[in-house]
Amino acid sequence: MSATAFIPPYPPRHTRPLGLLGSIRKFRGSMLDIWSERAFSADFFSSRVLRRTVFICNSPETVRETFVEQAAAFERKSPQMRFALEPLLGDGLFVSDGETWRARRRAVAPVTHASRMAELAPVMTEVAAEWHARWSATPAGGEFDALEEMAEMTAEVICRTLFGRSLGSDAAASVVHAFSAYQARIGQSALGAMMGLPEWVSRLGNIAASREAKRIHKVLDALIADVLRNPDGDASLVRALAALQAMEPWALRNEAATLFMAGHETTANTMAWAWFLLANSPASAARLRDEARAVLGGRAAGHDDVPNLPYARAVIEETLRLYPPVPVLAREALVDTKVAGTPVPRCSLLLVVPWLLHRNPRLWEQPDHFRPERFIEGQPIRYSYVPFSIGPRVCTGQQFGMVESVICLATLAQNFAPAMKPGHVVQPVSRLTLRPGAHLPMLLQRA
Ligand code: HEM
User: Fold this and answer.
1) Is the Cβ–Cβ distance between 234 and 240 less than 8 Å?
2) How far apart are CA 16 and CA 36, in angstroms?
3) Do the domain assignments include residue 12?
4) How far is the centre of ligand 1, averaged over its atoms, from the C-alpha of 432 (Å)?
């Protein structure tokens, strides 16, 4: 146990019930703000939100029961998630269910599987080396936005992986901007869906998002057509998907959009949070730097280095525990069923909330402290750590995200130790993903 470890920020935890209006007001700000102190240590509880009952699973047993043993009953994503993402992803893997989901999962899972990492990692190494050169060319101590910087870096990785290494930076930038504009449009429709308002109310809020989605579809269609027109071009996920299974062009585009969306911001947020946590934990930053220098000796990390960088991995794992990029996993019950012996009627909403589960004091020692060592000293209790979800709908990009984060973090930490900008206050906020606010200004110090 460490008495000196850094306790990173979290929203105040209220001790008395907020009431309906209070909860709605908080929810509009950030999904992290609605939880009471008691919610963190409760195993299983429910709450009535207007027309809908919401059940929250917060113990390893209830997580296993719902996401693994009763995965079929809880395979449908929440209406909130579907309304927010359907205009963009259509029937893509992330939002679909039933036979469509099964068919797409069979197509997408193999191309991003752990066994393909050695083939995919060189793009990560290449981008990490480029970012090392870019940071080296930046004056020491200069201010930069770590969130934007990491979003650009992970967008380069996923774009080159999806469409090939020769994809121009203009094309990558146009994909990134189009996705950001879409994100800015969604949100309000989610609140209506959460409360069980009629579907048309939520869909109305999506009109502007649909316009943005059409712009993204045009960009993606053109990139995919380019990839497929040139059979001798670079290896890429789009090419692998097209080769593996005959897919209609729109289905291929929906999966490309899914992979971009699922793989870009999640990893970017993880990396930004990791720099923030390290900036506030000098001992962890020094241990990471020493490990990275000893293993890499100045060069960029490759796939073979990852097993030799256990502390870098532990930093990422601890970052994902404290700030899980997807802080709420929400499902709609497809049938009447029971969880922990309690009746759960069809159409209720069921949540596994990594934000709560990962900080449950009954499962974690010093749950609010940043202590990467905990992942070296032992493994978490099964089903108590689910940053990538768990069960049949587990993230297909789990290995991709981990390997990418370790490669980029270790490569850069050899020579750089971003520091906090004095006076800037960080608070986690969550809409679809959990971020350190809209920006994370830091100073680019040399290590
Ligand atoms: C640190 C990085 C990442 C985190 C924390 C993360 C987390 C998650 C989570 C929690 C889910 C389940 C969401 C839910 O149940 O509502 C998910 C699904 C998914 N992720 Fe990731 N992800 C990451 C990186 C990636 C990457 C790099 C890719 C692709 C290259 C990817 C592709 C997907 C796909 C396709 C799904 C949908 C799977 C399905 O529904 O069957 N993810 N991810």
Assistant:
1) no
2) 7
3) no
4) 13
- Structural domain that includes position 41: 19-443
Q: Could you tell me if 102 and 222 are in contact, meaning their C-beta atoms sit under 8 angstroms apart?
A: no
Task: State pLDDT tens for residues 185-202.
Answer: 775 445 444 445 556 566
Does some domain include residue 31?
yes
Pocket residue to mutate for ligand 1, from 266, 267, 317, 350, most atoms within 8 A of Cβ: 266
Looking at residue 346, which CATH number applies to its domain? 1.10.630.10
Which atom of ligand 1 lies closest to the CA of 330?
16
* Cα–Cα nearest to 184, from 330, 270, 84: 84
Ligand 1 binding pocket (C-beta < 6 A) is 77, 93-94, 105, 108, 112, 258-259, 262-263, 266-267, 270, 320, 325-326, 329, 387-389, 393, 395-397, 400-401
Is there a domain that residue 105 lies in?
yes
Burial of 318 (0-12, 13-18, 19+ CB in 10 A): buried
Q: How far is the CA of 5 from the centre of ligand 1 (A)?
A: 30
Backbone dihedral angles phi then psi of residue 349, each to the nearest 5 degrees: -100, 135
Take atom 43 of ligand 1 and give the residue whose Cα is closest.
395
Residue 13, in any domain of the structure: no
- Over the chain (447 residues), what is each successive 10-residue block's mean pLDDT? 84 78 61 91 90 93 98 93 88 94 94 93 97 96 96 93 82 80 65 52 70 88 90 87 85 94 93 98 98 98 98 98 96 97 96 97 98 97 98 97 98 98 95 89 97
User: What pTM value is reported for the model?
Assistant: 0.94
Q: How many domains does the chain have?
A: 1
Give residue 8's pLDDT: 97
